[in-house]
Automatic annotation (TrEMBL):
EC number of the protein: 3.1.3.25
Broadest EC class assigned to this enzyme: hydrolase
Protein name (database record): Myo-inositol-1(Or 4)-monophosphatase
Protein family per UniProt: Belongs to the inositol monophosphatase superfamily.
Amino acid sequence: MPATDHSADLALLLEAARAAAEIACAFRAPEVWDKPNDGGPVCEADLAVDAMLRERLGAARPAYGWLSEETADAPERLAAERIFIVDPIDGTRAYLEGSRDWAHSLAVAEQGRITAACVLLPQRNLLYTATAGGGARLNGAPIRASGETDPACATLLGPRLAMSPEHWSGGEVPPLRRAFRSALAWRLCLLAEARFDAMLTIRPTWEWDIAAGSLILTEAGGIATDRRGAALTFNKPHPQSDGVLAGGALHPVLLGLLDPAAA
C-alpha cells in the first residue's frame, strides 16, 4: 500500500467534522436513552452524526477500518493497516445540557499510531488539528504544551477520583489545583495549548475518547501515556487504555509521584 498523505487525511477529517457540526447543531430536543451497563446517555444526534461520518469517510477511504463509540465493533478493523477512530459527539451529557463543552473527535491511525487528527468544538469556534510530524494548531495557529514542572503551580484536569490518595505514592497527593471538562478530547487539546498543565484519568479509557487529542498534544510537545507510563497504542482488540496521564513538562514529574502498584 502506498505511503499515506497525512495532510490529505486531515483535510478529509476537517470536511467531515464540519458536516458533523451542521447535523449536531440542528437538533433542538433529540430523543435520549441510556446505553447498557451504565454506559451513559446516547441520543439521536450521536447516531445521526455517526452514520454520516461512517458513510462519508468510508466512501473516501474504503480500505480504512472503522472504530466509533456509536457503531457496534467488528473484528474486521483489526486487519486494516489504517483505521478511522471517531467519537461523533464527545461530551454527550454536556451537549444535552446545552453546554458548549462538547466536541467532534476524529482521527486516523496507522499500525497503531495516530497520524492525523482534528477536534472541533463548533459552539466555541475551536478547531484543533495535527498530523504526525506536522505540529499542532488551534484555528490555524501553532500551539505548544506547558513547560510547568512544579505541581504546586500547576492545574490538573481530571475527575475527583484522580486526586484520591490511594493512587499516589505513600498516599501523598501532590498540591495540584484541579479542574474538569466534560470532553476527554478537549482536555487533551487544552493541554496542547498550555491552558492546563496535566490530565489524569484512572478508569479504563476508550480509544475514541483520546485518539485525536493524543496526537494534538504530542505534536504540541506534550506527552500522553496510560496512567502507568506505557505508550498509547490504537486499534487494539479491546480498544481501551489503562487510564491516561498526559501533560507538558509536568508529565514525568507526576508519573514519578503516582503509585505504580495502585489498582
